[in-house]
């Protein structure tokens, strides 16, 4: 797994308090990992912080799964 | 009018996490004061306070993990964490489990705070200044709002009755219990989880109260001696932190489920000073009227009162309250014991009235009045017993608890042994 994916996974595990093995490619933050809408806002902010990028609101709305996040950050970073 | 009894107790105080642990140390005359460790206090005048003892949860220490999961704790200021811990204790102690929709609809929450998420507000303001407004957490507002103790507790237990929060500075805890008792009396609910929570030991909190000249400043050499209500050498209050929560229940409801009934809320009085933003009126009339109203509601006379838990903050205002109590008690003053437990736990601001109401409940249960510690040289000669330094074994059928707050807001509760 890429370095980016590892770092994203660490953030997700920490913020949502979920087991690492639950954070898979298609895992939806809200449907599978127990996040609410405020959690997803905070997750996006944490990604911005970790990778020094800016994720605009319209882009943030497309980041629904762990895979979405890794893909977006890989292309933006 | 429907009768209201106390069926559950919970607290987190500078003496300990837990009701029995705190009570044992209080009766033993221990102090919860020490040097401030919550933040770097080198920049503030008063560098001591009464902090909750943190630890692994054993021996009365407070372990946050025991009360909220780490992922949820990031979303709350400490006052909410303390309030949740006290509420969970109280609900467990009561044995009340709301199963049916009807039970849930008839159970409410009323836990207030004097200031709420002061640290979160301060830290977020600094964050905006240093890194810009876009870095503000989506959890900032719900972590700081005062009514979010009640909100969080309702979510944890599914209590869907009245959800409310009192904000009356240092009278908050007493007002919350009094108002919640009325909600039960008025048939808005059968069970109310009521109390107060506070986490003011932060740079902004200490600096603010130092600026008001409210805090003790001269006892850095021995903080355990700093809170000394009624003593000639007192020089201000000592900041505390924590929470107190009770389960209030309609009498027949409690009887029907075979609940352990600690005591009955007999009376509740309120008044305003209309005098000054931080100082009590010098004639003590506001406190007098608050106590008199509470006794009237209880259908009692001053001579019926055995124990008074004073507001007694260890400031100049102590003697004003003492004067008001002596005026109220008249010839019966010699028969009453009054103590300030703030001598041991400091001033818990919005949590104080709730914690002190619980001390009254325990005084009734164990027939013992907790001491006023550090009372070595009386500031004035009192007409009543102030239980200096040693707990007083005595008959206690009726207890009265006073709480007075900035803005000139006064609340008194009368709590008594339940009469079946």
UniProtKB/TrEMBL annotation, chain A:
Every Carrier domain range: 2-77
GO molecular-function terms, A-Z: acyl binding; acyl carrier activity
Pfam families according to UniProt: PP-binding
PROSITE patterns cross-referenced by the UniProt entry: CARRIER, PHOSPHOPANTETHEINE
Associated pathway: Lipid metabolism; fatty acid biosynthesis; Glycolipid biosynthesis; KDO(2)-lipid A biosynthesis
Modified residues (O-(pantetheine 4'-phosphoryl)serine): 37
Keyword Lipid biosynthesis listed: yes
Entry keywords, A to Z: Cytoplasm, Fatty acid biosynthesis, Fatty acid metabolism, Lipid biosynthesis, Lipid metabolism, Phosphopantetheine, Phosphoprotein
Presence of keyword Phosphoprotein: yes
Annotated coiled-coil segments of the chain: none
Cellular compartment(s): Cytoplasm
Any one of the GO CC terms: membrane
Gene Ontology BP, a term: lipid A biosynthetic process
Superkingdom assignment: Bacteria
InterPro entries named in the record: ACP, ACP-like_sf, PP-bd_ACP, Ppantetheine_attach_site
Function: Carrier of the growing fatty acid chain in fatty acid biosynthesis.
Family: Belongs to the acyl carrier protein (ACP) family.
Protein name: Acyl carrier protein
Originating organism: Pseudorhodobacter antarcticus
Lineage, highest ranks first: Bacteria, Pseudomonadati, Pseudomonadota, Alphaproteobacteria, Rhodobacterales
Gene: acpP
Automatic annotation (TrEMBL), chain B:
GO molecular function, one term: 3-oxoacyl-[acyl-carrier-protein] synthase activity
InterPro entries for the chain: 3-oxoacyl-ACP_synth-2 (IPR017568), Beta-ketoacyl_synthase (IPR000794), Ketoacyl_synth_AS (IPR018201), Ketoacyl_synth_C (IPR014031), Ketoacyl_synth_N (IPR014030), PKS_Beta-ketoAc_synthase_dom (IPR020841), Thiolase-like (IPR016039)
Pathway: Lipid metabolism; fatty acid biosynthesis
Family: Belongs to the thiolase-like superfamily. Beta-ketoacyl-ACP synthases family.
Organism: Pseudorhodobacter antarcticus
Lineage: Bacteria, Pseudomonadati, Pseudomonadota, Alphaproteobacteria, Rhodobacterales
Annotated function: Involved in the type II fatty acid elongation cycle. Catalyzes the elongation of a wide range of acyl-ACP by the addition of two carbons from malonyl-ACP to an acyl acceptor. Can efficiently catalyze the conversion of palmitoleoyl-ACP (cis-hexadec-9-enoyl-ACP) to cis-vaccenoyl-ACP (cis-octadec-11-enoyl-ACP), an essential step in the thermal regulation of fatty acid composition.
CDD domains for this protein: KAS_I_II
Record Pfam families: ketoacyl-synt, Ketoacyl-synt_C
Listed EC numbers: 2.3.1.179
SUPFAM superfamilies named in the record: Thiolase-like
Stored SMART domains: PKS_KS (SM00825)
Keyword entries, A-Z: Acyltransferase, Fatty acid biosynthesis, Fatty acid metabolism, Lipid biosynthesis, Lipid metabolism, Transferase
Protein known as: 3-oxoacyl-[acyl-carrier-protein] synthase 2
Catalytic residues as annotated in Swiss-Prot or TrEMBL: 170
């Amino acid at each position: 797994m890429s370095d980016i994916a590892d770092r994203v996974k660490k953030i997700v595990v920490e913020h949502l308090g979920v087991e690492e093995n639950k954070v898979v490619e298609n895992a939806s933050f809200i449907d599978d990992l127990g996040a609410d809408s405020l959690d997803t806002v905070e997750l996006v902010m944490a990604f911005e912080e970790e990778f020094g990028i800016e994720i605009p609101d319209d882009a943030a709305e497309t980041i629904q799964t762990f895979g979405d996040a890794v893909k977006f950050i890989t292309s933006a970073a | 009018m429907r009768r209201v009894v106390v069926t559950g107790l919970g607290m987190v105080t500078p003496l300990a996490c837990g009701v029995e642990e705190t009570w044992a140390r209080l009766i033993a005359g221990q102090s919860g004061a020490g040097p401030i460790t919550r933040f770097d206090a080198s920049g503030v005048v008063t560098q001591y306070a009464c902090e909750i003892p943190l630890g692994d949860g054993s021996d009365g220490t407070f372990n946050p993990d025991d009360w909220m999961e780490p992922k949820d704790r990031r979303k709350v200021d400490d006052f909410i964490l303390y309030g949740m811990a006290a509420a969970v204790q109280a609900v467990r102690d009561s044995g009340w489990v709301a199963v049916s929709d009807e039970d849930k609809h008839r159970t409410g929450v009323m836990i207030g705070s004097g200031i709420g998420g002061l640290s979160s507000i301060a830290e977020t303001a600094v964050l905006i200044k240093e890194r810009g407004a876009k870095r503000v957490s989506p959890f900032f507002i719900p972590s700081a709002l005062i009514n979010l103790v009640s909100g969080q507790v309702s979510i944890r237990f599914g209590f869907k009755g009245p959800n409310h929060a009192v904000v009356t500075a240092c009278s908050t805890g007493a007002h919350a219990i009094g108002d919640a008792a009325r909600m039960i009396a008025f048939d808005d609910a059968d069970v109310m989880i009521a109390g107060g929570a506070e986490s003011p030991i932060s740079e902004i909190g200490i600096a603010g109260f130092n600026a008001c000249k409210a805090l003790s400043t001269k006892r850095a050499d021995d903080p355990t001696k700093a809170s000394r209500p009624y003593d000639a050498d007192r020089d201000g209050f000592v900041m505390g932190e924590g929470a107190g929560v009770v389960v209030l229940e309609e009498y027949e409801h409690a009887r029907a489920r075979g609940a352990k009934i600690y005591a009955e809320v007999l009376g509740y009085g309120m008044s305003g000073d209309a005098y000054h933003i931080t100082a009590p009126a010098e004639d003590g009339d506001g406190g007098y009227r608050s106590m008199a109203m509470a006794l009237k509601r209880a259908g009692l006379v001053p001579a019926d009162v055995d124990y008074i838990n004073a507001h007694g903050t260890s400031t100049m205002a102590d003697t004003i309250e003492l004067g008001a109590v002596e005026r109220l008690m008249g010839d019966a003053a010699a028969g009453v014991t009054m103590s300030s437990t703030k001598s041991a736990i400091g001033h818990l601001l919005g949590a104080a009235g709730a914690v002190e109401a619980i001390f009254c409940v325990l005084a009734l249960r164990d027939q013992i009045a907790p001491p006023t510690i550090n009372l070595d040289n009386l500031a004035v000669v009192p007409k009543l017993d102030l239980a200096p330094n040693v707990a007083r074994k005595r008959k206690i059928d009726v207890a009265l608890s006073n709480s007075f707050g900035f803005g000139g807001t006064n609340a008194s509760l009368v709590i008594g042994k339940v009469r079946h």
